[in-house]
Amino acid sequence: MPARIAVLVSGSGTNLQALLDAPDPAYEVVGVLSDRADAHGLVRAQHRGIPVEVVDLGDSTDRSAWDARLAEALQAWEPDWVVCAGFMRILGPCVLAAFPSRIVNTHPALLPAFPGAHAVRDALAYGVRVTGCTVHLVDAGVDTGPILDQRVVCIRDDDDEESLHERIKVEERAMLVETVQRLCQHGCTVDGRKATIP
Ligand code: GAR
């Protein structure tokens, strides 16, 4: 039986598309959820006949109500894993409690450097010569959970935020698909900060 995964997106959804296009996936994408009704990732899911849901923070009375609605919507799909693929909001305690050590995030920097929403811009502004991407388990912090994999991308003198982000995303898509495949086949163990896929 393939593992059931739910994917969270806020934007264009090219990481989602890579998950959908992977050959011989060990998973089935059972639902795609966004905090934004205009996220193009939702269209990508609909093209494949995958159920979609929008849980907009602005439609909830406060952040904890939004968190509860998000948890409820995800639980309805009974996913084994939840994958944040360009989801630009911090998950709350209801969602984290519903899927302990079962939520994965992809981030466009070599964590713990440059967490947050502007990782590529921040890396360029700092002047680092290498950056990259990280896939990690989600905990209550901002991009602080145990790291599953990382890939390095060199920064070129003429890079701007867009060109660098595009090169990072090439590595990121391959890394995310490979990591989700391995997680769905083998699971993972967590010992403090060390996450291992056997
Ligand atoms: C990806 O680079 C992902 O790492 C980033 O958004 C992009 C989404 O691309 N996420 C974050 O910055 C989260 N802090 P996509 O919509 O084309 O998959």
Mean pLDDT equals: 98
The largest β sheet comes out as: 7 strands, mixed
Number of strands: 9
Terminus-to-terminus distance: 19 Å
From the alpha-carbon coordinates, what is the Rg to the nearest angstrom?
Answer: 16 Å
How many helices? The count is: 6
Task: Provide the β-strand percentage band.
Answer: 15-25%
Helix content: 25-40%
The secondary structure category is alpha/beta
Distinct ligand kinds? glycinamide ribonucleotide
- Please identify the oligomeric state: single chain
Which segments are poorly predicted (pLDDT under 50) over 5 or more consecutive residues?
none
Shape: globular
What's the helix-strand series? EHEHEHEHEHEEHEE
Task: Give me the side-by-side strand order of the main sheet.
Answer: 3-2-1-4-5-6-7
